[in-house]
Amino acid sequence: MTRLWMLLCGLLFFSCTRNSSTEKYQTTRDKVENVHNRLKKFDTDSILIGNNARMYMLADYLLIADHRGYDKQIHVFDKNSFRHLASTAPRGQGPTEITVLGHVAVDEQSKKFYVSDHGKQKIFSYDIDSVLVDPDYTPEVKLTMDIANFPSEYEYISDTLCIGRTIAPIGVNDYVPSVSRWNMQTGKMVSISYNHPDIERKRITYTSSQQYRLIAELYNNYDLLTISDFNGNLKCNVYGPSWGESTRNHYYSEGFFDSKNHLIVSYSGGNNNTDAYYPTRLLVFGLDGSYIKTLDIGYKINSMRYDGLANRLYLNLNDEIQFAYLDLDGLI
What we know:
Largest sheet: 5 strands, mixed
Strand content: over 45%
Radius of gyration: 21 Å
Strand order of the largest sheet: 1-19-18-17-16
Order of helices and strands: HEEEEEEEEEEHEEEEEEEEEEEEEEEE
Helix content: under 10%
Shape: globular
Low-confidence stretches: 1-18
Mean pLDDT: 93
Structural class: mainly beta
Number of helices: 2
Distance between the termini: 56 Å
């Protein structure tokens, strides 16, 4: 009788824990708005850019990093007219060249952007004004990364506080990802990830917001996202309709916190080995993880970048058009 009572108490405790205020199960997400025709195509002013591109915002500029570019790999455009203004970060092994282009972080206050080179394990500092006037601009080395645990993407807040996804390699072709607080000056990293007990092999992207002091971990192979604060305190786990189903599917890709108290993420749910891998929808949540609506883009999304000043989303698409933007005013 004692053993049975202990078992029942344990089951009751587990049930209460998993159904607490931090656990949000969303079995349907059916508030769908088709925004396919609201996307506005833009061209890159005769600059050819490969599909594997990432976009970043700095002041009035849209930076497009072409990870397969043969010459200069970062192109600067006017974010409104899309006029090409400059290109930098030539590919190569030289001291001022980028060997393996990684993440680009922006420092709005200093008007600089920081470029990770995962071949040299260095982060280079570029002054945007100098890039615009000098085609042969030489960046400075900001720091050398620790190969044992390094940031793959991060939001720059200051030299003593960055929030990012860090990678700790283990064995051959394997790694442990984590969302961490990172001090550039000292190199110190403190994990603020939530380690979900039901996840066997964690693969995530992430987004963070200095405005809200929140992070979201977006699981690639589980229908799950988690929201925590900058100290690692869990706010909620959000389980989608496919939670518990195949881990061979791709669920979340990228996300951002907008300026209107929303978390917006790209979502697929399709097989990893087909074109269904690409997300074609954006899920809109409140900061508490509550589901609000779905925006059906109708194009396969490679990457995206949010402009909080204009409340505009820039998209790189693997479809009949390559680049487009979506004004979010009136949609959410």
